[in-house]
């Protein structure tokens, strides 16, 4: 199912102010140690959330580029989204069965400000079709982040546009990407979210 949206930014503080001004309550998620980023989160209804992620000035410069092309951004942008699966290895095989390369599974973790350690496994596709194709995440025994987030915002829909919508739909069906996800034909890949009537792209 749809797990979360990723809004990447070159300036986490400035983007957080803008998002909060739009009426969305953000809380500090914590740093991704060694990656050079940290995030802030907002609940989008049961089992869903918005992740605002950007450079962490308290960490040294990472050895590799930050994820989500953060180092190349000049403005905040909705760059990708995640689908939560109960069995990552099975979901990877299902995705491969459609001819899509979902990437390789890897383990990650971060510690929340209250000290609780969150751990998960995920896989990023080498080609995410401009952010349209989601990455897959398996939270294992970790409590889902949305359970500890304040409510108040709701994801109305996530619109995915691509020249080959049937190709995208086949992968989403294979991995169980249910939720308010709309796939449309478009000249170029694009993703747009509508949260309580506000457009985020």
UniProtKB/TrEMBL annotation:
Pfam families: Glyoxalase_3 (PF13468). Residues 2-175 form the Glyoxalase-like domain. Transmembrane segments: none annotated. InterPro entries: Glyas_Bleomycin-R_OHBP_Dase, Glyoxalase-like_dom. It comes from the Bacteria. This is Glyoxalase-like protein. It comes from Pseudonocardia endophytica.
């Amino acid at each position: 199912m749809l797990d979360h949206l990723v809004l990447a930014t070159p300036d986490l503080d400035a983007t957080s102010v803008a998002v909060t001004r739009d009426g969305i309550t953000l809380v500090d998620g914590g740093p991704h140690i060694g990656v050079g980023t940290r995030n802030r989160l907002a609940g989008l209804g049961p089992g869903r959330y918005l992740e605002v992620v950007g450079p962490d000035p308290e960490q040294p410069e990472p050895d590799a580029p930050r994820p989500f092309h953060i180092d190349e951004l000049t403005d905040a942008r909705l760059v990708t989204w995640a689908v939560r699966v109960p069995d990552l290895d099975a979901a990877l095989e299902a995705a491969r069965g459609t001819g899509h390369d979902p990437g390789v599974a890897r383990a990650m973790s971060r510690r929340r400000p209250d000290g609780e350690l969150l751990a998960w496994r995920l896989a990023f596709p080498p080609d995410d079709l401009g952010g349209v194709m989601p990455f897959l995440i398996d939270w294992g025994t970790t409590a889902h982040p949305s359970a500890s987030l304040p409510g108040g915002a709701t994801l109305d829909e996530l619109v995915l546009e691509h020249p080959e919508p049937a190709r995208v739909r086949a992968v989403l069906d294979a991995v169980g990407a249910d939720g308010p996800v709309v796939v449309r034909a478009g000249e170029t890949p694009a993703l747009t979210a509508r949260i309580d009537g506000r457009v985020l792209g």
